[in-house]
Amino acid sequence: VQKAFGRELVKYMALMRDRGGFPVVIMFNLNRSSPLGRSDVEAVLRSVKSDRPTTLAEWREVLPFSFRETPPFRLTDAGPGWVWLKAFDDSADSSQRLTIQIRWSPTGERPAEIAQTNAIRARIQLLSKDATIVEQHAEAFAGGQGDFIVASAGARTTLHFLRVLPNKTEVGLSTTGESHAMESAREAVMDIARSVELRESALAPIDAR
Known about the structure:
- By secondary structure, the protein is of the alpha+beta class.
- It contains 5 helices and 12 strands.
- The protein has a 7-stranded antiparallel sheet, with helices on both faces.
- A hairpin with a 2-residue loop joins β1 and β2.
- It is elongated, with a radius of gyration of 23 Å.
């Protein structure tokens, strides 16, 4: 029991674990006069199913976007709103290893400033404010008009797609690596980018989630 703002609250707290072993805390704060009692709280807790995805296939089903794998890239890791696709084999030199990241997230960026934002991020990715913009133009991406950029610094190149949506979210695809490896993989990267499609969950207003 806790007193707060002149009222007595009855607090119940439960610690559970989901299928992946991650902790889940559930808390109830009830007025002393609430008709709900301990037995009601326990009944609610028994009904809880913490069903966090634990496999790549399960994550892929709940992502706010869909995509197609194109060899030599394959899905290797995923989480809430993002995936990594990697392309390498055990015999390949480390300079040939590339990772594509596709991500969706809330954003404070504005559609009108998408080109500037994409250029800044490309330079950050290359750790060079003087990186050369090799190519940049509007490009269809994820069901709408996005910005496409290729930038380079030294022997490294980065490739970015970015689209900012009206619901204050963004979707992007990026990969960075040695320039010769990027040149060899470009067609596969472009094919994956063309396959990205947003699901309804990505288009809903953020405050409705």
